[in-house]
Amino acid sequence: MPTKEEVFEALRQVEDPELGMDIVELGLLYDVEVQGPRVKVTHSLTSMGCPAGPMIQEDINRIAREVPGVEDVDIELTWDPPWTPERMSDDAKFILGIG
């Protein structure tokens, strides 16, 4: 069975194409739940009108399914709490010149 950590690490391959950084470093990945072969990924976007949203969700689905043992992926887009740059890793803030 896959672990939360395995899925979380795999999702570092999902990039926000506008920022050229992965969703983990950007703080867009809120949670990963694993129940046997089923995985639920909760994420946000940098804005409600983010044009990259559908591409990011497709990548989340594809990459999560590549983790051994994952058979089903449920993706939840949330705005609660709203994403802010404070959610980004220190490295991402440094690269983007924030903070």
List keywords for this structure.
about 100 residues; alpha+beta; GMP Synthetase, Chain A, domain 3; three-stranded mixed β-sheet; 3 helices
Global structural class = alpha+beta
CATH architecture classification name: 2-Layer Sandwich
What pattern of helices and strands is seen along the backbone? Answer: HEEEEHEH
The percent range for helix content is 25-40%
Overview of this structure, please?
The strands form 2 sheets. This protein has a 3-stranded mixed β-sheet, covered by helices on one side. The chain has a two-stranded antiparallel sheet with strand order 1-2. It has a single domain (4-81), classed as Fe-S cluster assembly (FSCA) (GMP Synthetase, Chain A, domain 3, 2-Layer Sandwich), CATH 3.30.300. It has 99 residues and is α+β, with helices and mostly antiparallel strands. The protein is 28% helix and 23% strand. It is globular. The chain contains 3 helices and 5 strands. The longest helix has 14 residues, at 53-66. The mean pLDDT is 95.
Summarize the structure.
The chain is α+β, with helices and mostly antiparallel strands and 99 residues long. The protein has helices at residues 4-10, 53-66, 90-96; strands at 15-16, 21-22, 29-35, 38-43, 72-77.
Protein topology:
Elements: H1 4-10, E1 15-16, E2 21-22, E3 29-35, E4 38-43, H2 53-66, E5 72-77, H3 90-96
Parallel strand pairs: 4-5
Antiparallel strand pairs: 1-2, 3-4
